[in-house]
Amino acid sequence: MKGAEWYQADDVAEEYEDKRFSRGGRLIDQREKAAVMRALSPLEGKRVLEIACGTGRFTAMLASEGADIVGLDISEAMLQQGRTKAQRLGVDDHLEFMRGDAARLPFPDDHFDAVFAMRFFHLADTPASFLAEMARVSKSQVFFDTFNRFSTRSLYNALLPMGSRLYSETEVYRLLDGAGLQLEGSEHDFVLPYGFYRKIPDGVAQAFRTVDSAIGRTPLGRPLASVSYWDVRVA
Known about the structure:
By secondary structure, this protein is an alpha/beta fold. The protein is built from 11 helices and 7 strands. The chain has helices at residues 4-7, 10-21, 25-40, 57-64, 76-89, 127-137, 153-157, 169-178, 194-198, 202-216, 221-224; strands spanning 47-51, 68-73, 95-99, 112-117, 138-147, 181-189, 227-234. It has a 7-stranded mixed sheet, with helices on both faces. Strand 2, helix 5 and strand 3 (95-99) form a beta-alpha-beta unit. Helix 4 packs parallel to helix 5. The longest helix is centred in the N-terminal third of the chain and has 16 residues, at 25-40. The radius of gyration is 17 Å and the shape is globular. It starts with a helix and ends with a strand. The mean pLDDT is 90.
């Protein structure tokens, strides 16, 4: 995984949410949470696995909505942040955090109703093997996001010290076929890359987001989108 040592550092875990979801980054957090909720609902009694759960911002949210959820991550520092968040929200008895490798999931086949991963596949060295593991342990649904190759993300990507993996739609469809998954639905968003929003204040970010969303509703929205959300089913 790209940047694995950096990701597991204690100071990175402590500052992770403040750096990414403060200022204009709050709009990203809201949009991602809405995408996850829309895809996975209804959640009451649903058994869910989150891959690369990080600090538990999705894990705790889904537990509060009635999901029986496991959050798996490679970073113990990130998991500890998630446990603290779950305790603060009073949902720590509805979820479990585990340290583990997404390439070798410690669960039997068809163990979960749904498996999802956010902010994961852009760091994946072998996305096909990760997606196959997600499909293996899911009875039905897999949900994930990708950063898109032919978008403004490619410009921002050049500035990142460790880069990230970008995907074309053709590549995503090839990955789905290889994992035995069928596309149920997809959403495409953010003409402007995430990094731009994180650098500007809330009020300014909201103005740009209004324009960004308006473009997204036009025929140009899909080809220009920097992020895609994929809702798929086990064949």
